[in-house]
TrEMBL record:
NCBIfam families registered for this protein in UniProt: lolB
Subcellular location: Cell outer membrane
Parts forming coiled coils: none
Keyword Signal (UniProt): yes
Residues spanning the signal sequence: 1-18
Protein name from the UniProt record: Outer-membrane lipoprotein LolB
Organism: Pseudidiomarina fusca
Topological category with respect to the lipid bilayer: Lipid-anchor
Amino acid sequence: MKRLLLVVLLSGWLSACSTVPTSTTTTMVSAGAIAAQQQQLAELTQWRLRGQMAIFDLRENDRHGIYVDWNQSPNLVSMHFSHPLKGTLATLEQTSNGALLIDNDGNEYRDNSASALLERYFAVQLPFDLLQQLVLGVQPEQMFEAHYQLLDDDPQQRALLADYQLLAARQMWTAELRQYQPVATYLLPHSIDLTSAHWRLKLKVSQWLL
């Protein structure tokens, strides 16, 4: 794995990621409550998040971390990876023409998709297309064993995706979404956990910008 990911996160942040918010979690939610949340999220085509990301290689018992600034629009995905002491580590962009990564030395790497580029350059197997849905709480196709949560203080009683399982990038993944908070008129997760037999990704969102 390249030097991009060799930044250890503070143990205090990792502990904070495990905090469970006050909410009601249930599988007994109405189809209307699920549809209300998903229809609203479908309108959200342009957004930006800032946060901290930890990646665990479970086979090697290895843990690495980065800060991420993620911009998403219909035609461009841009991710800026950094560390407060080391500055910019790399940038990653994906368009309909493919993916481009530029490291801190100005070297350019290209591939057909961000998932392929991350796997080839960093030896990290992450389903990037799934991540774009996961961070918002959008239901992916072909998920199963899904559970939802209803926030006690949400007057609309929207059913928020809490966890599910999915086959992606040749692995079975378990996704968990926690700490939903209001952002403008939306309810968005601020703690995301994605785990397979080989990998685990934890994302702690510090700021959503819509």
